[in-house]
């Protein structure tokens, strides 16, 4: 009965990527859950921030057929400058209808409401690849702990099937919740964004005190951890941040190490599609710059995960 209840638990995802090799060991499927507590300046997945399903609008694809205006004329306004979309005036019940009316697919829906059982069925299709490579399933986002019951159901079902599970999290949830799901998480991937508290608030609009506390508490509880550190040129590519990352890998023996990741210029175009404010576009670093960052962490005594 418990398995049936777990499979019936519903939540909202915005993607499942198959054959991933960078979200934990081996070949994996990565499930992206909607909703996030942060608003990072460099967010790669702005469609993952709202918990609700939303319209993606690629204006260059719009031929002004005005079919969507027949669904909701207040949300879909046409002027001499073209099609303007006002998402706040579009009732939730008309999101799908707006996308379905669009002839050129300029309008599509980001997010699907699914059950944990449906997700499990999809990821189990590639079980042979997980078994052969030592892979499994990774739950990411957004911030997957925004959907606590759904995430817990997914983790329990995957663990029941014997799959290796990884959870990518920004660490902002309560420790009580992390503690409750720890038996079902083989690897915690902590997105460690910034060491300095004031800069962390500036860059993510959130405090990092609880994040540092959760890393320590999970380490002390015996969880297997890995840091994922996206480095943004001009923001957190500082020696004090690299030194702090290195120190953390030395202080916490259960930490596999730190993954030093380059910024990718993905957010700006996505922000346009989802009605967000176009943020700064940062310089995408060259491979040799990224390797220099990794070397710095090593020089400070840190363990780097390639």
Structure description:
With 306 residues, the chain is an alpha/beta fold. It folds into 2 domains: 2-50 and 112-299, TIM Barrel, CATH 3.20.20.70; 54-110, 2-Layer Sandwich (Alpha-Beta Plaits), CATH 3.30.70. Helices cover 34% and strands 22% of the residues. It has 11 helices and 12 strands. It has helices at residues 2-8, 95-101, 116-124, 127-133, 148-160, 175-181, 197-204, 209-220, 239-251, 267-273, 287-299; strands at 10-20, 28-33, 54-57, 76-79, 82-85, 107-110, 112-115, 136-140, 164-169, 187-191, 225-231, 255-262. The strands form 3 sheets. An 8-stranded mixed β-sheet has the order 7-1-2-8-9-10-11-12. The radius of gyration is 21 Å and the shape is globular. The N and C termini lie far apart (42 Å). The model has no long low-confidence stretch (mean pLDDT 93).
Task: Tag the structure with descriptive keywords.
306 residues; alpha/beta; Alpha-Beta Plaits
H/E series: HEEEEEHEEHHEHEHEHHEHEHH
| CATH-defined fold name of the largest domain | TIM Barrel
Helix/strand/pairing category: alpha/beta
CATH architecture of the largest domain: Alpha-Beta Barrel
Strand order in the largest sheet: 7-1-2-8-9-10-11-12
Summarize the main sheet.
8 strands, mixed
CATH homologous group name of the largest domain: Aldolase class I
Total number of helices: 11
Strand content: 15-25%
**What number of structural domains do the residues give?**
2
CATH class of the largest domain: Alpha Beta
Helical residue percent? Answer: 25-40%
Sequence stretches where pLDDT stays below 50 over 5 or more residues: none
What general form does the structure show? globular
The average pLDDT is: 93
Our measurement of the CA-to-CA distance between the termini, rounded to an integer number of angstroms, reads 42 Å
How many beta-strand segments?
12
Determine Rg (CA atoms, Å).
21 Å
